[in-house]
Amino acid sequence: MSGWLKIVGLGPGAETMITPEVSAALLEATDVVGYVPYVNRVAPRAGLVRHGSDNREEIRRAEQALQLALGGHQVVVVSSGDPGVFAMAAAVFEALEAGDAQWRTLDIQVLPGISAMLAASASVGAPLGHDFCCINLSDNLKPWALIEKRLRLAAEADFAMAFYNPRSRARPAGFERTLEVLREACGPDRLIIFARAVSTPEETIRVTTLEQATPDMADMRTLVIVGSQQTRLIERSGVPLVYTPRSAD
Description:
Elements: E1 4-9, H1 20-28, E2 31-35, H2 36-39, E3 49-53, H3 58-70, E4 74-79, H4 88-98, E5 107-111, H5 116-124, E6 125-126, E7 132-136, H6 144-156, E8 160-164, H7 172-186, E9 191-196, E10 204-209, E11 222-226, E12 232-234, E13 241-243
Parallel strand pairs: 1-4, 1-5, 2-3, 2-4, 6-13, 7-8
Antiparallel strand pairs: 8-11, 9-10, 9-11, 12-13
Helix pairs in contact: 3-4, 6-7
């Protein structure tokens, strides 16, 4: 058996958002490697070994996957959303660069998935319809000072902004500070969207303003989008529509 490694995205939650390309790779795999909740999204079957690990073991997980592939296994590394957006693709290449030279001979592919920010944007319309940026608010792998600098510069450039990992039990203060920075930089009337558990039965969507936003509106299952000055709201029954025009003044 010839080993290979595919790094895939399982999408934001719904099975219908897993691409056919990723589904085919999972059917061919002998091994699935990833964070336990994501591995559990892959149904067990004969001939498949599922290797689940803790959330903060990305490099060890990547090394395990590379070594399995070197040994002839057909390995799929799973992430939620898209594997190249704050996920396992970068971790695998980091391990590859620093590790066994034989790993570089492997057949390695990255198979894209539907990211949480795109699913969240689609749930309310098109708030990312013009220039936007994406920032991970977790300071586990970078200092908070760098996050705050990027927040201010993104606001100054008038990007719409998508935020991953806004608030956790271990990091309750970071999102509170984020809202303070954004109110200072963008003003109180800027639109903000809280999209939680998008595409799952637990999905909730809330559209409000920075003035009305509170830290407890977000958790680790929430994707937050803040509009630009150009972003517009269309009132209607139920969740309003939000979009950013394709042109800018």
